[in-house]
Amino acid sequence: MNRLPADDPLARALRRLVADEAGFRPPPGEVLVEPLPSSRKVLRFTFPAGDYAVVGKFFSAYPPQASADLSLAREYDHYLRLPGLGLGNGGGLTPRLLGRWPERSLGLLLEAVPGPDLDHLLLNACVHGDPPPLFRGLEKLARLLAFFHSRPVPALPVAPEPALAYLDKVMAQLLAAGLLTREDRLALEHERAAWEARWQIFPDRQVLIHGDATPTNFLFPNGRAVALDLERLRRGDRLWDLSWVAGELKHVWGWRTSDFSGSEAVIRHFFRMYLTVTGLDPPLAQRLFSLNPFYMALAELRIARNLYLTRDYRRELVAEARRCLAHGRRL
């Protein structure tokens, strides 16, 4: 960990942004700097006394040109939209936006949120045998996503093209990585054609989705769920969120216990809570269970791209996605 001197321009800027948006001025003195795991430069800044921290995301260059920098600029714009969507600014569902200093590469400054993330709860449940906190966390996550999905957006119909295009994209990436056999490719192409017609049977309207519902993007401080990383916030099919969570749950059990089926009770609990919160609507329940296998297979294929996983396990994820697609069409 490093420290910023009290008179460093960035330290002064951080204090100014906190004072303007949070309504108080942090105490003077050195600011502790801690890098956080991320594909871009992300730093946690803790002020003297250690009881208040902020998180900054940084551009690699400004004005933004690279894809990651454009994504960060988009995320800042999304935070500005939150009050108009009924999500407030720092009201407990998302971190408080404190501003930015793009001329010095600071693209986004947020109030830090304490508490474990979903990945921590998953590890404790499937490895350390402590599932109750995970079940409680998933109940809170279901309520949070249901609230996102209830926000006022234009009532446009869900179309299959984004999901089918995403399947094409991940298939091409896995082919390039040598992770798909010819049999895999033909089977996935067959499933693509077979699933396309099912969207007509199970229509839905677009909702506001988080768009990147992975375990490290949800924290659980003080009995609530908080959504992070809003760069992919958009209108779309609610299953991009719900099935993404389900696919991540399936993956955690497969990766950490070599038993994909160990996740089934947890996934059922998450879906049951979501449907309860949204009013136990029978058509919605039928659509969720009918189309979830397709989106969950997308999540599994997406995860199979990760280089930190062993090659054998990545092939197991491909096989599990194929099973999910083939079995799901028979539901």
SSE arrangement:
Blueprint: E1 2-4, H1 9-22, E2 31-35, E3 42-46, E4 53-58, H2 67-81, E5 97-101, E6 106-111, H3 118-126, H4 132-149, H5 161-176, H6 182-196, H7 198-201, E7 207-209, E8 218-219, E9 226-227, E10 234-236, H8 239-257, H9 264-277, H10 282-303, H11 311-328
Antiparallel strand pairs: 1-2, 2-3, 3-4, 4-6, 5-6, 7-10, 8-9
Helix pairs in contact: 3-4, 4-9, 5-6, 5-10, 6-11, 8-9, 8-10, 10-11
Characterize the structure shown.
This protein has 331 residues and is an alpha+beta fold. The protein folds into two domains: 2-111; 118-328, Aminoglycoside 3'-phosphotransferase, Chain: A, domain 2 (Alpha-Beta Complex), CATH 3.90.1200.10. 50% of the residues lie in helices and 12% in strands. It has eleven helices and ten strands. It has helices spanning 9-22, 67-81, 118-126, 132-149, 161-176, 182-196, 198-201, 239-257, 264-277, 282-303, 311-328; strands spanning 2-4, 31-35, 42-46, 53-58, 97-101, 106-111, 207-209, 218-219, 226-227, 234-236. A six-stranded antiparallel sheet has the order 1-2-3-4-6-5, sandwiched between helices. The chain has a two-stranded antiparallel ribbon with strand order 7-10. Strands 8-9 form a two-stranded antiparallel sheet. A hairpin with a 6-residue loop joins β3 (42-46) and β4 (53-58). α6 runs parallel beside α11. The chain is globular and about 65 Å long. The model has no long low-confidence stretch (mean pLDDT 94).
